[in-house]
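Quiz preparation item.
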């Protein structure tokens, strides 16, 4: 009975480790994404394209780091929702308040100049 329990513990301990090749691939991908981010400055992109590319590369790198190095890829969906739904809701509320602030600002300007 004791040998069987020992074998189960050894198998369970071995299955929890991820292969080092996966981490090396993620490091390489992070390096490539960083190089692409620097290329945005090197090629001197301007305007909306520049900021879109910078934000896309930033979110991709942050997602890789969170999913692999913080082991979120192996968590349950409930934990992922617990982490990601509140920031998404806050961003939606910020967008709604921003549009309402623009509406109030336009109405105030119109009322000041149209007595």
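Solution:
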């Amino acid at each position: 009975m004791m040998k069987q329990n020992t074998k189960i513990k050894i198998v369970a301990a071995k299955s929890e480790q991820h292969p080092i090749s996966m981490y090396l691939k993620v490091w390489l991908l992070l390096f490539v994404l960083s190089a692409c981010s620097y290329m945005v400055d090197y090629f001197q992109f301007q305007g909306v394209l520049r900021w879109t590319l910078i934000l896309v590369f930033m979110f991709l790198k942050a997602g890789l780091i969170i999913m692999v190095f913080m082991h979120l890829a192996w968590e349950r969906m409930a934990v992922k929702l617990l982490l990601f739904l509140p920031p998404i809701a806050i961003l939606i509320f910020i967008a709604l308040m921003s549009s309402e602030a623009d509406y109030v600002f336009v109405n105030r300007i119109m009322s000041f100049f149209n007595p």
